[in-house]
Amino acid sequence: MKILKKDKVTSFKRSVDAGTEEQRAAVKSIIADVKQRGDEAIRHYTEKFDGIHLDSLKVDKDEIKQAYNQIDADLVTILKEAAENIRDFHAKQKSTSWFDTQADGTILGQKITPIDAAGVYVPGGTAAYPSSVFMNVIPAQVAGVERIAMMTPPGPNGEVPAGVLVAADILGIDEIYKVGGAQAVAGLAYGTETISPVDKIVGPGNVFVALAKREVFGDVAIDMIAGPSEIAVLADESAEAQQVAADLLSQAEHDARSSSVLVTTSGTLAEAVHSAVEQQLQTLPREEIARKSIEDYGAIIVCDTMNEAEDVINLIAPEHLEVVTGSPFEQLAKIKHAGAIFLGKYSSEPIGDYFAGPNHVLPTNGTARFSSPLNVDDFVKKSSVISYSQQAWEQNHKKIARFARLEGLEAHARAVEARKENK
């Protein structure tokens, strides 16, 4: 890993993968085809890209039952406990409608209503991500979304990974389609003979999924266009080098474009972590990916003071931030920009990925400066409520009409004044 001084740091933003012209053109073509041919187009692309012929797009109940035979009973218990933790955390985020009655009889307020239908994309194929099921579905359920449809690509055998099906069943999700890629996004956005359209699409995917979400945005809502994962560790001399190195590599193994950064006030720790990363890389199953990530986007930044270190963290605005210092809550007060913050030596990043409760769908690539983790509010709409009283109208209608005429909108002014004729 590169060891840098603070004055050499600008940011660790990586170029957004906007795809090639060929990829963008392919995605547009797929979406147009699904809009026109529906299920037939989805079957065609599933066979073309996944090598699977689908008699039925939808996962049936027997497949869900069979999935439990492939999962250890103790693991099912762990999944249920994780789901409960995640639900408990998100339940605390739920907002309620409110109304305020003023002295003149006017009632102003805000009505909160869940969206009708959400689509969840869960990556799959050769890997299984039950955690993605939990993190995307549970906040929608807590928000009160009535219909949740899940898309996930089939594996080489034409089946959805057992862990994904069990996770969905634990949450009571039975609308599951064995479809991935841009065709899945198009099906959710515009509907087919089998799939009813949704109002919002959430969940991570490959470049074709990301491009498709970007393309359908506006016709439906989306959560975000997530980039490669990243972690920053803020540490002082109290941190243990082997633990910090393990935490940095926990993100480096995700993707060759992942970013892992240590920011520390200890030169001794910096050298020790540098050595520990190299040592641990040599026994890592995904060494090639992790090494490329560390070489291209990894760094150790040595600062003279903790204030400087905190400034660097706010500049990076990392997706995941671990604070491994003697007094992590002191640093918490000064951290402004981070997707998720893990405090203390026992709060390693994977705890948040799977079990603790907070959402692991987080803003990446510096967007934590203005974005939040996926949460319950992402699945609701807020409507303003206005009930003006006669007294309030009499006090204010002339002011409002003058305001409207200032903007040259005579019909607006007349609409307010028209109430005079009905008194």
From TrEMBL:
<feature type="binding site">
    <location>
        <position position="229"/>
    </location>
    <ligand>
        <name>substrate</name>
    </ligand>
</feature>
<feature type="binding site">
    <location>
        <position position="206"/>
    </location>
    <ligand>
        <name>NAD(+)</name>
    </ligand>
</feature>
<feature type="active site" description="Proton acceptor">
    <location>
        <position position="319"/>
    </location>
</feature>
<feature type="binding site">
    <location>
        <position position="254"/>
    </location>
    <ligand>
        <name>substrate</name>
    </ligand>
</feature>
<feature type="binding site">
    <location>
        <position position="251"/>
    </location>
    <ligand>
        <name>substrate</name>
    </ligand>
</feature>
<keyword id="KW-0560">Oxidoreductase</keyword>
<feature type="binding site">
    <location>
        <position position="412"/>
    </location>
    <ligand>
        <name>substrate</name>
    </ligand>
</feature>
<feature type="binding site">
    <location>
        <position position="407"/>
    </location>
    <ligand>
        <name>substrate</name>
    </ligand>
</feature>
<feature type="active site" description="Proton acceptor">
    <location>
        <position position="320"/>
    </location>
</feature>
<feature type="binding site">
    <location>
        <position position="412"/>
    </location>
    <ligand>
        <name>Zn(2+)</name>
    </ligand>
</feature>
<keyword id="KW-0479">Metal-binding</keyword>
<feature type="binding site">
    <location>
        <position position="254"/>
    </location>
    <ligand>
        <name>Zn(2+)</name>
    </ligand>
</feature>
<dbReference type="GO" id="GO:0005829">
    <property type="term" value="C:cytosol"/>
</dbReference>
<keyword id="KW-0028">Amino-acid biosynthesis</keyword>
<dbReference type="GO" id="GO:0051287">
    <property type="term" value="F:NAD binding"/>
</dbReference>
<feature type="binding site">
    <location>
        <position position="353"/>
    </location>
    <ligand>
        <name>substrate</name>
    </ligand>
</feature>
<dbReference type="GO" id="GO:0008270">
    <property type="term" value="F:zinc ion binding"/>
</dbReference>
<feature type="binding site">
    <location>
        <position position="251"/>
    </location>
    <ligand>
        <name>Zn(2+)</name>
    </ligand>
</feature>
<comment type="function">
    <text>Catalyzes the sequential NAD-dependent oxidations of L-histidinol to L-histidinaldehyde and then to L-histidine.</text>
</comment>
<dbReference type="GO" id="GO:0004399">
    <property type="term" value="F:histidinol dehydrogenase activity"/>
</dbReference>
<dbReference type="InterPro" id="IPR022695">
    <property type="entry name" value="Histidinol_DH_monofunct"/>
</dbReference>
<feature type="binding site">
    <location>
        <position position="121"/>
    </location>
    <ligand>
        <name>NAD(+)</name>
    </ligand>
</feature>
<protein>
    <recommendedName>
        <fullName>Histidinol dehydrogenase</fullName>
        <ecNumber>1.1.1.23</ecNumber>
    </recommendedName>
</protein>
<keyword id="KW-0862">Zinc</keyword>
<keyword id="KW-0368">Histidine biosynthesis</keyword>
<dbReference type="Pfam" id="PF00815">
    <property type="entry name" value="Histidinol_dh"/>
</dbReference>
<dbReference type="InterPro" id="IPR001692">
    <property type="entry name" value="Histidinol_DH_CS"/>
</dbReference>
<comment type="similarity">
    <text>Belongs to the histidinol dehydrogenase family.</text>
</comment>
<dbReference type="GO" id="GO:0000105">
    <property type="term" value="P:L-histidine biosynthetic process"/>
</dbReference>
<dbReference type="InterPro" id="IPR016161">
    <property type="entry name" value="Ald_DH/histidinol_DH"/>
</dbReference>
<feature type="binding site">
    <location>
        <position position="320"/>
    </location>
    <ligand>
        <name>substrate</name>
    </ligand>
</feature>
<dbReference type="InterPro" id="IPR012131">
    <property type="entry name" value="Hstdl_DH"/>
</dbReference>
<feature type="binding site">
    <location>
        <position position="353"/>
    </location>
    <ligand>
        <name>Zn(2+)</name>
    </ligand>
</feature>
<keyword id="KW-0520">NAD</keyword>
<feature type="binding site">
    <location>
        <position position="183"/>
    </location>
    <ligand>
        <name>NAD(+)</name>
    </ligand>
</feature>
<comment type="pathway">
    <text>Amino-acid biosynthesis; L-histidine biosynthesis; L-histidine from 5-phospho-alpha-D-ribose 1-diphosphate: step 9/9.</text>
</comment>
